[in-house]
């Protein structure tokens, strides 16, 4: 026994020493330390000739790595509490929901193309659905990123972690049954929800009080021991209920955080997390055969492309549509484009449960390594890539981008938010009901499909193929009716929200806000479609053929794109006419000798749908004098747009990006109040 202990200690010393060396090397190369830990495991693993570390030591490669999972998820849970989740707001949650659903769909499709069955493909998709807060934080820190998009990226990553944990818990619950039949799926969902609610209710009654009493003794070790004890108890309960230990550890961290003592505990948990986390990632590397990674390079590259492209598109699209601006949205997407550490946990569970072959593990490691290398490169170039995208956008889209953020800001700050909810409440409730009935009808049809075919074929002596066709047709009709209901209520919500921002004209005169209201309606339809279709597709995949889902989504996308392009053309004409009116108003102000250029009276009534407008006169000594709008990059740096310019030396003119600005020029700035304030500072001080 003593010899075994010495053997374990020797192996552990080699593991930690190698991890320290490779971590230092990876950081010297501006790469996250996680990359070094995984490489350390590969170097000392059993697949490298002559290496014996951990070959007979199940304690190191299995048990200690499990402690790494527990401490990692416990520390993530400490960053959450119910108040923080509510404070982060729905925008980041909707973005993460769309991104995770998109990654599950893309991963599922890619896995099916490579020959996995439906159940296996769900686990493969889950392996690539999560991002890494650790890797993203390290990339932001090394490149000294402190802009608004960093907070946005972290908020999205917080919800990404939560959704991934829920997906994994659901998959582990389904794995304990007989597969992904409709009955097992519905039963597993119900059990999971009941377990989480019971755990949360009982935990909120006991754990915060227990932790506060431990903290009252003002001894850090007492608080640490009490918190780790809670962590292990919750982990044991989750394991006993048949769920992942990661879920129990995360719930423990969140409940401990509810005590208000999480900030005291985090510095003491961090060393434990770092040590056991390093062992976990080393163990991941030790289970990875470098030759296997190289052998399966087509799959590794395919999944890497899905991760990078899918996460950039998913996060950028969701963040922009929730009103965070195109630049911040794109940069947040580039910062979230990596495969998270949770993928190793999901892959290890799938292999241990016999769901996936052990060859999947080196594939997941290969994808993680490639995305860990690419993330710092993407973050470093994120500003230039976002600026390039904004420059390359067609004129119609640039106009829409300039206005959309302001529209969402007006919707957020609409007075009496309860009135907004009361106006959309009925449509939202009907939307949720139709979506639930859609899933229930699809799942129910699949559940009783062959029983119905057998019953009618035997009872009425009909050909089974005929009964099959009729049943499928009837099922599609029912599902289609509920799907049309979802689309109808979704459009109703979008129209109602658009009317709040751009009210409809009630007089007999022309409706001046028709063009911007239509553009906003289509944009909100796209945003709501993405928010609704993502979860619907992810849930419906076990019951509806993927080809059918993709066909329907493609058809909807074509209709929305066509409708959107026409509405953008009308919006551009509206903006062109409005710009001419703004220039005329600026000219009138100058003609009347007004020196106070702080407001444009009546613009909101004359130009419905335009963002907030504020004039700014360039005085001698201002930074912008002698520089061009192209040099200042005002829109990229502030989010505000120069809608018109009144010059002393030339006739009325629209903004010319390469014409130098002169003192006395009056610029009409459009955007949110915060964007206009930033633009003023740039124009005056640089």
TrEMBL record:
Q: Which residues cross the membrane?
A: 34-52, 64-82, 94-115, 121-140, 152-173, 185-211, 223-256, 298-321, 359-379, 428-449, 469-487, 519-537, 543-562
Domain of life here? Answer: Bacteria
Localization, UniProt = Membrane
Record keywords, A-Z: Ion transport, Membrane, Potassium, Potassium transport, Transmembrane, Transmembrane helix, Transport
User: What membrane topology does this protein have?
Assistant: Multi-pass membrane protein
* Boundaries of every RCK C-terminal domain copy: 601-685
Question: Among its keywords, does the record have tRNA processing?
Answer: no
Q: InterPro entries annotated for this entry?
A: Cation/H_exchanger_TM, Na+/solute_symporter_sf, RCK_C, RCK_C_sf
- UniProt keyword annotation of Cell membrane present: no
Instruction: Please report a single Pfam family linked to this protein.
Output: Na_H_Exchanger
Q: Which family does it belong to?
A: Belongs to the monovalent cation:proton antiporter 2 (CPA2) transporter (TC 2.A.37) family.
- Please name the PANTHER family in this protein's record: SODIUM/HYDROGEN EXCHANGER FAMILY/TRKA DOMAIN PROTEIN, SODIUM_GLUTAMATE SYMPORTER
Q: Specify the protein name.
A: Cation:proton antiporter
- Species of the source: Nannocystis punicea
């Amino acid at each position: 026994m003593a010899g075994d202990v010495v053997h374990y200690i020797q192996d552990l010393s080699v593991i930690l020493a190698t991890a320290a060396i490779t971590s230092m090397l990876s950081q010297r190369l501006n790469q996250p330390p996680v990359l070094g830990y995984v490489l350390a495991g590969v170097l000392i693993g059993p697949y490298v000739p002559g290496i014996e570390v951990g070959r007979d030591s199940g304690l190191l490669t299995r048990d200690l790595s499990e402690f790494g999972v527990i401490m990692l998820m416990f520390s993530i849970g400490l960053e959450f509490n119910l108040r923080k989740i509510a404070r982060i707001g729905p925008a980041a949650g909707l973005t993460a929901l769309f991104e995770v659903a998109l990654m599950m769909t893309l991963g599922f499709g890619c896995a099916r193309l490579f020959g996995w069955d439906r159940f296996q493909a769900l686990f493969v998709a889950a392996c690539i659905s999560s991002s890494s807060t650790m890797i993203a934080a390290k990339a932001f820190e090394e490149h000294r990123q402190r802009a608004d998009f960093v907070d946005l990226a972290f908020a999205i990553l917080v919800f990404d972690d939560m959704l991934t944990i829920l997906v994994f818990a659901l998959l582990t619950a389904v794995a304990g049954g007989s597969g992904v039949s409709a009955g097992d799926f519905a039963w597993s969902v119900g059990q999971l929800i009941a377990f989480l609610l019971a755990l949360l209710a009982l935990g909120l009654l006991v754990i915060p009080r227990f932790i506060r009493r431990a903290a009252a003794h003002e001894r850090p070790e007492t608080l640490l021991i009490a918190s780790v004890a809670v962590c292990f108890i919750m982990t044991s309960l989750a394991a006993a209920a048949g769920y992942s230990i990661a879920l129990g550890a995360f719930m423990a961290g969140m409940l401990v955080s509810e005590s208000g003592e999480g900030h005291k505990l985090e510095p003491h948990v961090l060393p434990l997390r770092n040590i056991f986390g390093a062992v976990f990632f080393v163990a991941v590397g030790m289970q990875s055969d470098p030759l296997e990674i190289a052998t399966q390079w087509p799959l590794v590259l395919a999944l890497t492309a899905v991760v990078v492209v899918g996460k950039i598109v998913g996060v950028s699209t969701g963040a922009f549509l929730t009103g965070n601006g195109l630049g911040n949205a794109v940069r947040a997407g580039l910062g979230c484009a990596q495969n998270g550490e949770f993928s190793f946990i999901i892959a290890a569970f799938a292999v241990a449960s016999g769901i996936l072959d052990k060859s999947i593990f080196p594939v997941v490691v290969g994808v993680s390594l490639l995305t860990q290398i690419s993330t710092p490169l993407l973050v470093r170039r994120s500003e230039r890539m976002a600026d390039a995208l904004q420059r390359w956008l067609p004129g119609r889209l640039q106009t829409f981008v300039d206005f959309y953020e302001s529209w969402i800001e007006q919707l957020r700050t609409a007075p009496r938010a309860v009135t907004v909810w009361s106006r959309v409440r009925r449509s939202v409730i009907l939307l949720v009901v139709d979506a639930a009935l859609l899933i229930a009808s699809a799942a129910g049809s699949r559940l009783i499909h062959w029983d119905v075919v057998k019953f009618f074929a035997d009872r009425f002596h009909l050909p089974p193929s005929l009964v099959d066709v009729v049943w499928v047709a009837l099922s599609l009709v029912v599902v289609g009716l509920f799907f049309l209901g979802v689309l109808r209520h979704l459009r109703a919500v979008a129209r109602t929200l658009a009317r709040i921002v751009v009210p409809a004209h009630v007089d007999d005169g022309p409706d001046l806000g028709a063009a911007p209201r239509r553009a906003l309606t289509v944009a909100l339809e796209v945003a709501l479609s993405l928010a609704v279709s993502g979860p619907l597709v992810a849930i419906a995949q076990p019951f509806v053929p993927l080809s059918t889902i993709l066909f329907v989504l493609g058809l909807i996308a074509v209709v929305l794109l066509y409708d959107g392009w026409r509405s953008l053309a009308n919006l551009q004409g509206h903006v062109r006419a409005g710009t001419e009116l703004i220039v005329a108003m600026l000219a009138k102000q100058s003609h009347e000798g007004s020196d106070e250029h702080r407001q444009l009276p009546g613009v909101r009534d004359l130009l419905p749908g335009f963002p907030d407008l504020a004039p700014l006169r360039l005085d001698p000594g201002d930074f912008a004098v002698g520089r061009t709008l192209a040099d200042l990059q005002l829109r990229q740096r502030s989010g505000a747009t120069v809608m018109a310019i009144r010059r002393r030396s030339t006739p009325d003119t629209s903004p010319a990006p390469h014409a130098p600005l002169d003192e006395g020029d009056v610029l009409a700035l459009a955007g949110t109040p915060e964007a206009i304030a930033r633009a003023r500072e740039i124009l005056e001080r640089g």
